[in-house]
Hints:
Aspartate Aminotransferase, domain 2; single chain; 13 helices; Aspartate Aminotransferase, domain 1; 429 residues; alpha/beta; 7-stranded mixed β-sheet
Amino acid sequence: MKQGPTARGVRASEGLANVRYEIRGKLARRARDLERLGYDIVSLNIGNPYAFGFRTPETMRLAMIENLRKSEGYVHQKGIFPAREAVVMQQQERGVKGVTAEEVFIGNGVSELIDLTLRALLNSGDEVLIPSPDYPLWTAAVNLNTGRAVHYPCHAADGFVPDPAQIEALITRRTRAIVIVNPNNPTGAVYPRETLEAIARIAEKHRLVVFSDEIYDQILYDGAVFVPMAALVHGTLCCTLSGLSKVYRACGYRVGWAVFSGDVENASEYLSGLELLSSLRLCSNVPGQWAVQTALGGYQSINELTRPGGRLYESRRTIIDSVARSKYLKLSRPMGALYSFVEVRKEVLPDFDDQEFALELLENKHVLVAPGVSFNVPYQNCFRITNLPESAVLANVFTRIEELLEGHAAAAPKLHVVGRAGSGAPIPL
């Protein structure tokens, strides 16, 4: 009897070989399995305000509802004019000059725009400078679009603020762009003006496109000051990315924007390519776009949450205080965004492995965190946690973390020294 062809499974594209997004990876899938078994999991791996009881401001919800009739058809590939004009007005208020609605693209969240803006720019092997730790979508999107992610270090000892000289040292003839994430995810760092000005001059000197991810621009603590990158970049192209997801607690609306400023005149071919890609997906989600004008022009309720006494401020304080009391943890104080990038002290637990710890914390303590290696760092002694839960929840989480680390310390091999010459007997310390 004639044998048929050997059965083969459907294989994934080779283009996914260097693409990682562990924040929603194996650990998150295991957490869902545990929830199906009846366990209550405290999921701290994703900055999703709705999951912790936050609501989108009512005025934004009403703006969307009142315009649903206008949302039933396609709109312009760049987005509706009222939304784009509102973004222009915000940029003008921040000192960014020369921007019109033609330089604004509305997308299905910043995530889609990261992919589109890189796809329109990169050729095979082109390099993009990305912070480490990074928001891993940037590295993944560069790799997906045939580029090469080159990571510039942001050290905890420096408050996770990058050194412009180290950035410039990484530039080659293939470097096309530099990514800034400020306020930073995952570290909570807020970059000082002098650092941003130095990076702007480097980008202008080498004619690099600047991608400034500013989705957390108004989530600031303890007097931290946000400086918009577009106000500093003039002699090269600058793309500012932001949206409704975080400041306005509207992740599910999937509304983000990319604003182009600086040397727009010499970027007409690139912007035409980006408009082509925007046209191919017809348009982004329409109902959510009607909330943009109300959001940017209305009362900024985020300020209530980030000042002393506000929920985000107090939850962040709980994280800071819990780490300060720990024998095993340390933290560079987060000044913005919704996260803390917590370090485990190597001198206390030298064999600590963040991935093993995250799995053990999930299985035994039912807490889900994102291990540090998820953010493209070369070390394995960190994890990211969000400050979205109530303070009491976070206090309980750190009690569980401390219990687990106590167990690790107790199980670690004890130091010993060799006994008298010739005896070979160890003497315990």
